[in-house]
Write a structure and sequence with these properties.
Blueprint: H1 22-26, H2 33-39, E1 47-49, E2 52-54, E3 58-67, E4 70-79, E5 85-89, E6 100-101, H3 102-109, E7 113-116, E8 128-130, E9 133-136, E10 144-149, E11 154-158, H4 164-169, E12 172-176, E13 181-184, E14 187-188, E15 205-212, E16 215-221, H5 233-242, E17 247-251, E18 259-261, E19 264-265, E20 280-281, E21 283-287
Antiparallel strand pairs: 1-2, 2-3, 3-4, 4-16, 5-21, 6-20, 7-18, 7-21, 8-9, 10-11, 10-12, 13-14, 13-17, 15-16, 15-17, 18-19
Length: about 290
């Protein structure tokens, strides 16, 4: 079943959006412990600067943009395997009241790069699938999720249309449940009228996008301060599209929005706009071994 919303129904989605076939999944390193162990060996000599990281498996470049009267931080990531795109839970424990700062979770797993996730603990329902483990399968009505498959492809789904168990059986490795989708098949999928509820007006933002096969964008913006107004959902979608994202998805924002690179907080996280400090969250999305 095709769950993509698209303004170009006559065109096939790019290859890296297609759901992986079961035959392909059988040869994926996630199902082959020996290959997984070999790939997870950290290279001995990565090249690291204040704004970049490179080894034979992972390349990360951090760039700060100034648009919409806001500082926006972009991590352009290319990996050799989707195994290096991971998620982690606060205290390595699933629970609605279990939280930690993004930097603390990142440090606990040795993340090279991390952003805050969907803060699943703030919701009573909505799918929670992390690194192939299904923690919550209770569907939230009209909830739009990002599914990341074991081969690194992305898909946007609606929870009322497909069960978490089905997605897991089809090879999903991660399900992030916040939203909405910002870009699908290269087309902006939100409007200025979507600024309601948890995603209202200009705010600090966090988003993840895919440009090409195993080529990702992890993006965080400042906001709520005199220096940075923050972004609307539509502005965030425009920005992700301008970077070449074929698909992009909005994660938890506001005071949660945090990017950590090599142990350093890159952006200026704030809840009130008066003090710069991290908010504790349920989970992160990260790049690492």
């Amino acid at each position: 079943m095709q769950l993509w919303r698209t303004a170009r129904p006559s065109l096939s989605p790019p290859l890296f959006f297609r759901r992986p076939a079961r035959k392909a999944l059988q040869s994926n390193p996630r199902q082959n412990p020996q290959r997984r162990q070999q790939r997870n060996l950290r290279p001995s000599e990565p090249v690291i600067t204040e704004s970049s990281y490179s080894d034979e498996n992972i390349t990360i470049t951090i760039t700060e943009y100034r648009q919409y009267d806001t500082s926006i931080y972009v991590a352009d990531v290319i990996v050799s395997s989707a195994e290096y795109l991971k998620t982690a839970l606060a205290e390595n424990t699933y629970g609605r009241n279990v939280t930690a700062k993004t930097s603390e979770i990142a440090d606990s797993v040795g993340a090279i790069l991390a952003i805050n996730g969907d803060y699943y603990g703030a919701q009573e329902s909505g799918y929670v699938l992390r690194n192939g483990v299904l923690y919550r399968a209770d569907a939230a009505r009209s909830q739009e999720d990002l599914v990341i498959y074991a081969d690194g492809t992305f898909e946007i789904i609606t929870e009322s249309a497909v069960t978490a168990e089905t997605l897991l059986a089809q090879g999903a490795a991660q399900i992030l449940s916040f939203g909405p989708a910002l870009v699908e098949n290269g087309i902006i999928s939100v409007t200025s009228e979507d600024e309601v509820g948890k995603a209202k007006t200009s705010n600090p933002r966090t988003a993840i996008g895919i440009v090409d096969d195993l080529h990702y964008l992890l993006v965080v913006s400042d906001g709520r301060t005199e220096e940075s107004a923050g972004l609307t959902l539509y502005e965030l979608a425009e920005f992700m599209q301008s970077l070449g994202a074929e698909a992009a998805y909005n994660l938890d924002g506001g005071g949660s929005s945090t990017m950590v690179f090599n142990g350093v907080v890159v952006n200026n996280p704030t809840s009130s706009g008066r003090t710069i400090k991290e908010r504790s969250v349920s989970d992160i999305v990260y790049i690492g071994y």
